[in-house]
Design a protein that fits this description.
Number of strands: 5
Shape: rod-shaped
Order of helices and strands: HHHHHHHHEHEEHEE
Number of helices: 10
Distance between the termini: 62 Å
Mean pLDDT: 81
Strand content: 5-15%
Strand order of the largest sheet: 1-2-3-5-4
Number of domains: 2
Oligomer: single chain
Structural class: alpha+beta
Amino acid sequence: MTAPRPHRDDVLIAFAGLLGGVLLWALGLYTQADRPLSGAWALVPLAVMSGAELLRRAAPMTALGIGTPIVLADRFTSGSVATVLMFTDVVYAAVLYGSPAAARRIPWSTALLTIGVTIGSFAWIRTPDALLTGVITGLVVFAPAATGALMRSHREDAVAARLRAGQTALLAEMDRVQAVTAERARMARELHDMVANHLSAIAIHSTAALCLDDPPTTRNALTVIRENSVEGLAEMRRLIGLLRDSGGGRTPVAAPTLAALDSLVEGARANGLDTVLDDDRPAGAGLPAPVELAAYRIVQESLTNALKHASPGRVTVRLSCAGDALAVSVRSPYGDRAGPRAPGSGSGLVGMRERVALLGGTFEAGASGTIWQVRARLPVREKESPV
């Protein structure tokens, strides 16, 4: 096991303490007189204490173990202020750099030692001068220990504050990433729901115009293509405007509501779908804006899927209020179909499911015999949490 390497600052402290002690000794400045070991004997504790100072940070408890008997031995020499000052620094370093257990134990031990020395001196000498011995003992052992405990507490608080700041920054970054991801998913749903219907109609009618050599049919198909192109371009401009002008002071374009279902159904009929709207909601029943937008997009995407994949037949859109929820149902013929098809990616069903999940509702889509049915239940208000 390699010996601990002294810190650079500790080397400077030890050298300064040794140099100062030698200078005081050369000038004949001692802390006490009439001791058994006088003269150059004061340099021995000084040298050993400066060696303990080299370990104040690398091995603080070892330094304290060396320094304690040395400062007691210094009492038998003429003494040096430098030796005592270096010992107080060793006590301070033992609390500051030692183990947590030592940092808790040393201040209490030095406090008890100070009290014990004060009481013992007063009981021995029985004069007020005995109190001075207790004060000096407190300044040499308890004061540096208490100062070290205070500095250690400040350092630990600073470390904890940095950790909390790092955790806060990490949580903020996680929230930002989640917010960006959620916003990208929302934009993807909006873009798909707004444009897919028009592009599907364009794909189907352009295929029909290319496959059928019939001028009236071709003209009708081109008319539908132009109408869907114009409407799709308008929808794209609306979405771009929302993205570009958010927070820019302009009034945002209103999101579609269930009041526009009639126009949506008429557009589906113009694209060749035999569509019927059955709205059983009470007259004047208001719904939250997120619910209306989700219901509108579900109907829109269901009609788009029917346009691309449904067999010939009637498509029924039904809305009704079921307790505290809005029920949306779209039924279309399911099976083989003749004529052109538009390719599908499945993202429409994913988007509808996500919209319903965000509102805490339920969503089902699938075939039952010759009928493909999309059913969604959208809560009108949030459930109250139990008290």
